Structures are given as C-alpha cells and as structure tokens.
Amino acid sequence: MNRLKDAKSAFLRLAADSEIDWYPWGEEAFKKAKEENKLILVDVGAAWCHWCHVMDETTYKDKEVIELVNKYFIAIKVDRDEMPDLDKKLQLAVSSLTGESGWPLTVFMTPEGEVFFGGTYFPPDDAYGRIGFKRLLRELVRIWNEEREKITQVAKSLKSALSNISYSQESAEWDKVEEVISAIVSNYDFEHGGLQGEMKFPHPTIDELLLAYSYYTGSDTEAKLSLFTLRKMYYGGIFDQVGGGFHRYTVDDEWYVPHFEKLLIDNAELLLDYTHAYQLTLDSEILDAIKLTSNFILREMFLGDSFANSLDADSEGKEGYYYTWTEDEFKEALQSEDYRFWIRFFNVDLGREVEGRKVLRRTMDLRDLSKRFQDPLSKLTEIRIKLLEYREKTRKPPLRDDNAYTYPNARVAQALLESSIITGKGKEEALKVINKLSPNITRRLEGGKEGLPEDYASALLAVITAYEVTGDKKFRDLAVKLSDEVKSLDYSYPIDSPNESVASLALKGILKVQTMNGELTDVKVPFAQSPLFTAGVAQVMASIIKGIAHVVIVDEKDGKAEELHKASLLTYHPLKVVELVSSEDYDFLPSFIRSMIKYNQGSSRVYICKGTTCSLPVTSAENIKLLLKSNR
After folding, report:
1. Distance CA 352, CA 199 (A)
2. CB 3.0–4.6 Å: which of 94, 417, 617, 623 could bond 605 by disulfide?
3. What is the DSSP string of 580-619?
4. pLDDT, tens digit (0-9, with 9 covering 90-100), for 275-334
5. pLDDT value of position 211
6. What DSSP character marks residue 17?
C-alpha cells in the first residue's frame, strides 16, 4: 500500500493498493525528486474517468511499468476535481507541447517541477497508433541521463511561453458580442445541433448566449439554434433516457453514444440552461428535461446536506453497463406494455452498441407519440418509471464520488433553486447547501483548504439566488460580503471549458450585487483571442451594454405578493435581480427606489428598473412579463 490510503479524494483512494509508489501532490514528493535527482511523473484523473481506470488497470499494473516508474521516477497522483487550478495549468502546458489534453493527463516534469513532456492515455505497449508507456519511460530515462540539456531546454522554453499568456481586459462593446455570435454560427452543426466536431460536448454558455442575443436583438434565429441543440441532446444518448440527467459527452457528432460518466457540475449547468430556455419558450419537452434532470440530481446525487461530485462511467466491470439495454431486458421490464413499440421508440432494435448492449435514444417526437397515446408525455413518464425500477433492481450502480466540493455544490444549489419555481422540487435541498456557506469559502463544503476563485464566484451566485427566491435578508448580507471577497481574487480566466468560466461567474455575481446596491455596473471584462469559447463573458458584456433588470416586489401583506414574486422569477431576462421586500423594511434599497415605494403605498406592487430609471408600479403578473420582455 502506498501513500494514498488516507486521501480524501476518491480517485486517489482507488490507487491506494497500487504497486506503484504513488505520492499525493505536495512538498514531500518534490523534495524526494530533488534529493534523488529523479524525473517526476504526474497522473491527473478523476473517479468518473473511464480511460483513467483503463490506464490504472492496464498500464499501471504492468510489471515492467511498475518497475520502471518505481526505479526512475517520483510518481504523483492528482484528482482534477480536487485540484482544478493545478489541472488547468498542466492541461495548458501539455497541450502547448503536444496538442493533447483531457484525462488521464500524463505529465513529465524535471525534479524542479518544470513540465517538459506529456500526453493523455498511454497503453503499456505500442497500440492504437500510440507509443507504449514502457518504451516512452525508457526513452525519457535515457535522455535524462545522456542528453539532459534537451529536457531542460524544453522545460525552460515552455515556462517562458506560458508566462507570457494573459487575457485582455475589455470595455463592454457590442462588436465583441457580435464577434462571438459569428464564431458560434460559423461553427454550428445545423444537422445535429451544438458545435461541429467528431465528438460532442454540451456548451451551456453558448446556448444561453444565443437565447440572450435573440432577446436583445429581436432576432429569433439564434434562439432557434439554441433550442434545436437542447432538443437534440434531450432526444440523444447523451441524455439518460430512463433516469434523467446528462452524461459528459458523446464520441460521435449525433449526441448518440456517450462516455457514461455523470458529473454534478455538468448537470447543474445544463439544468440552468434548460430552465432559462423554458422561461423563454414554455416548451413541454424542455420542461420534461428539467423535471428528469432535477429528479436525477435529487435521487442519485443528494447526500443529505450536500451533493456528490460524480458517477463513474463503468459498473460491473463494463463501460456504460448500468445505462445500456438488451431487447430481452426491455421485454422483462415492460411485461404489461407493448414492449415492441418501446423497443423501436428507444432504438433498442437497431441502435448502436457499447460492449454488446444498446444505447438508448429517442426515435420519435411528441407528434408521433400523440398518434398512439392521448397524453403522450404522461405515458412516456410511466414507461420510464418502469424501466428505472427494473434498472435499480437488477444492476449495481456506478461508483459515486461522495466528495462535496463547493464549486459544483453551489452551482447545483443555484440551478435547483431556479428550477424549483417550475418543478416544486429541490428548494429545501439547495438551501441546505447554501446555509453551509460563509464569507470564508473552502474547497469542500465541510471546510479545509481555502477556496479557489471558482468556489467563491459560484457561492456568490448561489447565495444571490437564495435571496431572490426566499427574500431572506441574511442572504443579501452574505452576498455583499462575498462580492467583496470575489473582487479581491484573480478571476481573469475567460474561457469556457466547456463549463462556464470563472470570469463569467464572478462578473455576473458582482454585477448583480452592484445592481442591488444601486452602484454603477461598469466593469472591465476579461477576453480571449479565441471568441468561440468566450460565450459566458460575451453574455456579461451584452448585459452591461443592454442593462441589468432590477425587479423589486413590495409585499403589503395582502396575499398578492407571492404571485408577483413567482412571475418575476419565472419570466425570462438574460441577467436580472429579483428582490422581495416588506413595505415596512426596505431601507437597504437604493435611494431612488426607496422614494418611489414611499409615495406609492397601497397594494403589493412591482417596480422594474434599469440603471436609475424605474417603471411605474405594476400589480399584475401579466404586466411584469410585458415589462421584462420589453426591458431591452
């Protein structure tokens, strides 16, 4: 047993019995490397990562690999979910050298910790067109012993190149927004939705920017592109057609055959994505995706007071076994139903296989179903419940990483709070997470290491959402404190990866707090040269230019404020802040709003402001919707 048995990380603990002498990332490993003048091997992965498990079970169990690593290297394991900041740096270094990135990430360093080579998955012997790990290790040892200056020169050059990478701080300009929209449309897959490519990752910030652009410009084209992508994913194999929730990505361009891992962060951001699309469209299938995803998160990820980090891709020794099917299993699960029809519906008869089992995806839409069933969505829900019950009874679920990291927990709390207004579920569970937050954010909810900028920024947005949904002033006070903390951090990284960038998260939170306080919402926005993956900060720019909506509901205790509050939360706007205040306690509001409340007393009412200009009070949900839709 090596040094990993007491690690909090699920990924590190999986390697605790490895014959390789693994170290966790830390001073001990680097001190040892310097003392023994050995190269450093860093393996970056995650508990949910299929190919990480493959490399652990094949390459790192090969006797010759074990001997080479233990004799000539100091070996370090890193969990990318535990140390995302380190992972980001190492990914950038390796991709700069070899063009490869992803997990497992295999990194080679000098004893001083300077990267000089790397890649992703390496088989033990030459295979798949890739050099075998044994041959690679032997060659690196030879170069280190005989031509060391080659390694030190590469390391020096890479360090210099990476030190020069920076991101410009831009004023909000509409031309920048147009540049990003143009890049997205130029790379859009008009057949399958999403971005063109041999593999498909969801890009929630792109979907959301397209919606926002349509809202601001009055053009419906961009919103249609966004909704087309959301429907294609909802029909595809990337979506768990039985239990809800999304797998991480697909290995094809059709959203069909996924890598089956499920990450909390991905499902949180997609839940927000679909929730905002539903606010704009009230589409019944978008609503179904929201309900199924919310149910999955609450059913399979909730730990009682926080949420688990991920579910593995593998179960019972097979990739995707928990999620794939045979025709006989469908027949057994749906004994009292026309199982032949549902086999065709989910493409079990003709569909693609993973390890001899079929990946489910829908082959029919609601119009097809309505020809057969009077209430097609209810019937589909009934079938899914039967399939889910069968799945849960007959299969062992994938490994769950129960680490409760602050960043994904805060994101899912925000998503559940927003979607709970639609589904009626998730509010209580989300507030359990948010009630753990304080001005001092840590990497894990239960405490420990200081939080990263993404932990602080996501916590800020979650706390603001809790204030918007509950009206509880304690969340407002905490949001103001957290905003000050976020401002003091480096949140300059603007690239969506495809999860929303820390720059986008931080700026949204800062702008919302500034709006609540009546402050000038004019900030510099970090920007990257590649516009395609900066949709998050582009939406921030658009919001600064077009204005952030500030919705204030004044509760006169006449029983009418609840409906007004719900309408304010449910009506789409790209960036808005909703405050529910008592007619007896509103001194914390900006002075220009306080003056209107004072002289317009009577029934519960709503003011909708942009900057320092506010509407006359409105007293109906319909007028709230009209004002927010025209607040462009």
Report:
1. 16
2. 617
3. EEETTB-TTS-HHHHHHHHHS-SS-EEEEEETTEEPPPB-
4. 999 999 999 999 999 999 999 999 999 999 999 999 999 999 999 999 999 999 999 999
5. 98
6. T
- On the question of pLDDT at 516 being above 70, the answer is yes
Q: Give ∠ CA 36-41-47 in degrees, rounded to 5.
A: 135
Residue 550's nearest CA partner among 624, 479, 461, 475 is 624
d(CA 601, CA 105): 62
Give the full edge-to-edge strand order of the sheet including 115-119: 22-24, 73-79, 39-45, 105-109, 115-119
* 479 class by beta-carbon count within 10 Å (0-12 exposed, 13-18 middle, 19+ buried): buried
pLDDT at residue number 1 = 67
- The pLDDT, as a whole number, for residue 379 is 96
**62 backbone dihedrals φ, ψ, rounded to 5°:** -70, 130
Query: Longest Cα pair distance anywhere in the chain, in angstroms?
Result: 86
Distance between CA 312 and CA 315 in Å, rounded?
8
Tell me which residue of 497, 536, 619, 47 sits closest to 311, measured CA to CA.
47
- In 3D space, the residue among 452, 453, 538 whose CA is nearest the CA of residue 495 turns out to be 538
> Does an H or E element contain 357, and which?
strand 357-358
149-188 burial string, b = 16+ CB within 10 Å, else e? eebeebbeebeeeeeeeebeeeebeeebbebbbebbeeeb
- The Cβ-side half-sphere exposure at 228, using a 13 Å CA radius, reads 17
- Look-up of token digits 């910030």: 205
Q: Which residue has the tokens 């060659």?
A: 139
The whole-number pLDDT of residue 632 equals: 67
Pairing between β-strand 605-610 and β-strand 39-45 as defined by DSSP bridges: unpaired
Paired with 43 in beta bridges are 77, 106
The 10 Å CB-count burial string (b at 16+, else e) for 20-34 is bebbbbeeebbeebe
Cβ pair 29, 76 in contact under 8 A? yes
| DSSP state string for 388-450 | HHHHHHHSPPPPEE---BHHHHHHHHHHHHHHHHHHS-SHHHHHHHHTT--SS-BSBTT--SB
